[in-house]
Amino acid sequence: MVLRYSSASGTAASERVRQTVALLRRRGYALSPRRLGELCVGGPMAETEVRWAVAAAEGLALAGNLVVDRSDVDRAPDISRRSVSHVTDAGEYLEMTVAFIRRLVVVAPFIQSVSIAGSLASGGFRASDDVDLNLIVDDGHRHLAYVAVNALGLLHAVRHRDKPVDHLTRRPVAPRLMTANLILERAQCLPLWRQDEDMAFELMVAEPVFGIDALIEVIDANEPLLDHFPQLADRSAPLLIDHPARRLPAALFPRVLDGAARALGEGAWNYMQWTRRHSPEALARVAYVRSTMRPYTLFDNPGSG
Description:
Blueprint: H1 13-26, H2 33-38, H3 47-56, E1 60-63, E2 66-69, H4 76-107, E3 111-117, H5 118-122, E4 131-137, H6 142-159, E5 178-185, H7 186-189, H8 197-205, E6 207-210, H9 212-221, H10 224-228, H11 257-275, H12 280-293
Parallel strand pairs: 4-5
Antiparallel strand pairs: 1-2, 3-4, 3-6
């Protein structure tokens, strides 16, 4: 299925490329001229145009076939290695994740849409990474969705306890594998409070797996997102699964349970932060990711990271 809208771009090519590189840099990765052209702010751009724009722009460079800020030239080899790892590791984890989502939407009928986000969607996945999911859920069910993802995710991780881990995904019982990256209630989407380029990019690079209609509704209700990335409305969804024939009854999950789910989920989240207490790098990474998701971050009490 393909979403279609008209696209337009009025920004100079060099500035559009610079803006895209800066956005990618905030997320910790870079792209080849061809791929950057596909995901460029303001609409697709031919690879030759990207190369000319890099040559004309101060502060940009090509390093290892990646378009980077000149200050990041030394990081290009590591980013390239992640791209190579993605080619070898992503296929198995994509298949595993689609199977996980099939089970998730059966046991959690309040989930309207699920997309794969993070490194598995962006092209920099390594086997030691976890898999990030973006969800749209019924109003009053954000914390229930968080608990559902993590409870089912724990059972899933136990079956894959031999998975490679790093300082972010290592856990005492089972590795961190399936995680909720962004959970939005339907009312939060219609419209979104944030319609900036970072939110538009988050929605664009995520791979829809379930509930394409909910995503179309979000785009229709937030047209400013298309000003940043017209590509949002003209993309395929090759991983899309059918709606399950049967799901658990929604009556089993009334909104009143969300408060208890919040307490349970926050306790589990605090425990995860405790397991990272000896890893400042991991804590800093978590704090950064949470900052990019505000005001939609769960358990974001005053003074929390």
